[in-house]
Amino acid sequence: MAAPLPIAVLVSGAGTNLQALLDTVHTREAQIVAVASNVAGAPALERARSRSVPTAVFPASEHASREERDRALADWLLARGTRLVVLAGYMELLGDAFLSRFPRAVINVHPSLLPAFPGLRAVEQALAYGVKVFGVSVHFVDSGIDTGPVILQRAVELPDARSTDEVLDVLHPIEHELLARAVRLFAQGALETDAENPRRIAVSSPAG
Q1: Average pLDDT over residues 91-115
Q2: For residues 49 and 121, what is the distance between their CA atoms, to the nearest angstrom?
Q3: Catalytic residue positions?
Q4: Does residue 137 lie within any of the structural domains?
Q5: Distance (Å, rounded) from C-alpha 168 to C-alpha 62?
Q6: Domain with 51 in it: what CATH number?
Q7: Domain limits for position 191
Q8: pLDDT for 41-52, tens place per residue?
Q9: How many domains, the chain?
């Protein structure tokens, strides 16, 4: 059996997606070697500490620029052997100073069927638009806002949804499942870029 893939998770809030990874892939297909946040009091950090995962905080206010912060964050993650970075409710943009250190190795989970409703408050955007179908996307991160190639998606019909909480209650379990599956697939080397369309990510084998 292959050694677990060393991954890092970036968080800003409660950390339910982090918890899902700790409960599913951690010490199995992947090893969470670092958890970092831009928020010192993020509850997600305590979830990591309870499993003896190293944590650190990189607030923008303590760095001269976002680029400097990104470089410091990347240095810390690489020093711990990180090969995949997972954004799990991380509410900051990452620039080229960070992404260039982890080429095609940063993924994010987003509560919409991209390319619809990118950015913040995706569910609120969808509700305001009046959609009947919501969903979750896991995608590679590039320099745009939720514009990277999609890895996995799942749709769910909620024709009578009226509130953000109502939708998120349905989407959160899907987020947890798809994010863990994407990490497994990456660890297995099962994600391939279509030679004819670099935006298309093919899955070459099923998740374990």
Answers
A1: 96
A2: 29
A3: 110
A4: yes
A5: 33
A6: 3.40.50.170
A7: 5-203
A8: 999 999 999 999
A9: 1
Q: Which residues contact 208 (CB under 8 A, 6 or more apart)?
A: 29, 184, 188
Q: DSSP labels for 170-189?
A: HHHHHHHHHHHHHHHHHHTT
Judge whether 163 lies within some domain: yes
Q: CA–CA separation, 173 vs 148, rounded Å?
A: 23
CA atoms within 13 A on the CB side of 9: 33
Residue 207's pLDDT band (boundaries 50, 70, 90)? very low
In a domain, 208, yes or no: no
pLDDT tens digits, residue range 61-88?
A: 999 999 999 999 999 999 999 999 999 9
Give SS3 for 199: strand
Cis peptide before 111, with omega less than 30 degrees from 0? Answer: no
- Rounded Cα–Cα distance for residues 207 and 187 (Å): 10
What is residue 26's DSSP assignment? B
Q: For the chain, give percent helix, strand, coil, nearest 5.
A: 35, 25, 40
* Spatial contact of 86 and 107, defined as CB atoms under 8 Å apart: yes
Contact between 161 and 143 under an 8 Å Cβ cutoff? The reply is no
Token pair, residue 62, equals: 């303590």
| Cβ atoms of 92 and 12 closer than 8 Å | yes
| 3-class SS of residue 96 | helix
**Domain contains 182:** yes
